């Protein structure tokens, strides 16, 4: 069995090592040695395979990793995540070499809107402020006023004067969360969704909650079930104090101080690895164990080491696009909670 076949069996985020790849220690040593020799820092998103999270210099949510990319002293960044994240790192650090172990690691949510579509939408709403989730291409960011992540989406929208229209893109579930939190009615949303989070359905949530009546609930705002989670709290199906709508970084903050026996987690399953490490006393279980992002899982241990050895795949953003996108990304980095990574 190849490494790729074996890591594919570890998509559940339980942190166990493939029994047929015994030499993880020398793999880790080589990653660290190559990174040191090449003056590289390895950044990994919370949804990466457990082995990749464990070897990285920093693990975090997309906001924390953007901040780390902006302040990194190393001359090379190896981004174990999806393409828009590595592109954001390049926009923030244009003079560094930014690598992604597989440039085909895309994002179904980012693919729901193009720069042309955004230009047409803006033309329908002259004067509106464009707030773009970081899960977008560099070309879309270049057409936006300010970016946000799930960690700071509410604060970013609150930074816009209340009487100004907002075009919020591309995730409709995150937009619904932002509308609820800010109480603003002048937010227009794009109808995009992430196939992984949209796939965590209200039915999955109801089944999990009814099977475990005293468990706490962590729900990522991109989830198809986030609206029904809040509905279930209003009709008394689940207590409001046990239901938390959180970005991945905020889930970790919550987990560190949790005294819950069990927490049901509605997000991509790679998150479970960090949650279990942060608090071994709590039993963290997925609401939908099939919620695995195949783009995130395209970054395998084999590809990570090849990326460092061969300095591939290099991420490039056209300088004029990067220059236009940078202001929106820098505004995002400046707003919101400082945590989200280790
Ligand atoms: P975070 O912003 O919580 O890191 O999430 C990124 C993402 O891709 C969600 O699917
Ligand atoms: Fe994109 Fe969804 Fe994968 Fe996140 S989980 S990278 S939003 S496809």
UniProtKB/TrEMBL annotation:
Pathway field: Cofactor biosynthesis; NAD(+) biosynthesis; quinolinate from iminoaspartate: step 1/1
Domain of life assignment: Bacteria
Gene3D superfamilies cross-referenced by the UniProt entry: NadA-like
GO MF annotation terms: 4 iron, 4 sulfur cluster binding; metal ion binding; quinolinate synthetase A activity
Manner of cofactor binding, per the entry note: Binds 1 [4Fe-4S] cluster per subunit.
Protein's UniProt keywords contain Cell division: no
GO BP field: 'de novo' NAD+ biosynthetic process from L-aspartate
Documented EC number(s): 2.5.1.72
Catalytic activity, reaction form: iminosuccinate + dihydroxyacetone phosphate = quinolinate + phosphate + 2 H2O + H(+)
Pfam families per record: NadA (PF02445)
Main location, first listed in the record: cytoplasm
Cofactor: [4Fe-4S] cluster
Alphabetical UniProt keywords: 4Fe-4S, Cytoplasm, Iron, Iron-sulfur, Metal-binding, Pyridine nucleotide biosynthesis, Transferase
InterPro entries: NadA, NadA_sf, Quinolinate_synth_type2
Compartment(s) of residence: Cytoplasm
Binding site for [4Fe-4S] cluster: 107, 194, 293
Record-stated family: Belongs to the quinolinate synthase family. Type 2 subfamily.
Role description: Catalyzes the condensation of iminoaspartate with dihydroxyacetone phosphate to form quinolinate.
Protein name stated in the entry: Quinolinate synthase
Organism whose genome encodes this protein: Microlunatus soli
């Amino acid at each position: 069995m190849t490494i790729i076949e074996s890591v594919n069996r570890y998509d559940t985020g339980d942190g166990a090592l493939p029994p047929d790849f015994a030499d993880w220690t020398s793999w880790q040593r080589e990653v660290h040695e190559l990174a040191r020799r090449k003056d590289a820092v390895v950044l990994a998103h919370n949804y990466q395979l457990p082995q990749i999270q464990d070897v990285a210099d920093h693990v975090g949510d997309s906001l924390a990793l953007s901040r780390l990319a902006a302040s990194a002293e190393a001359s090379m960044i190896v981004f174990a995540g999806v393409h828009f994240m590595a592109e954001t790192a390049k926009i923030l650090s244009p003079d560094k070499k930014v690598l992604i172990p597989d440039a085909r690691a895309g994002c179904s949510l980012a693919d729901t809107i193009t720069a042309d579509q955004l230009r047409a939408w803006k033309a329908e709403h002259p004067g509106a402020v464009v707030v773009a989730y970081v899960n977008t291409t560099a070309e879309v960011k270049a057409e936006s006023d300010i970016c946000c992540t799930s960690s700071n989406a509410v604060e970013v929208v609150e930074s816009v004067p209340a009487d100004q229209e907002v075009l919020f893109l591309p995730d409709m579930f995150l937009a619904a969360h932002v509308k609820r939190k800010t109480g603003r009615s002048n937010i227009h949303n794009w109808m995009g969704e992430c196939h992984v989070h949209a796939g965590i359905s209200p039915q999955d949530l109801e089944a999990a909650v009814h099977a475990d009546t005293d468990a706490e609930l962590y729900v990522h705002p991109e989830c198809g079930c986030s609206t029904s989670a809040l509905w279930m709290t209003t009709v008394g199906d689940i207590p409001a104090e046990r239901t938390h709508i959180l970005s991945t970084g905020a889930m970790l903050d919550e987990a560190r101080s949790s005294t819950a026996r069990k927490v049901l987690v509605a997000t991509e399953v790679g998150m479970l690895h960090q949650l279990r490490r942060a608090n071994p006393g709590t039993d963290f279980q997925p609401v939908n164990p099939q919620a695995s992002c195949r783009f995130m899982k395209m970054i395998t241990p084999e590809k990570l080491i090849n990326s460092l050895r061969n300095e591939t795949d290099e991420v490039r953003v056209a300088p004029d696009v990067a220059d236009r996108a940078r202001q929106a990304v820098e505004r995002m980095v400046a707003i919101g909670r400082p945590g989200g990574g280790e």
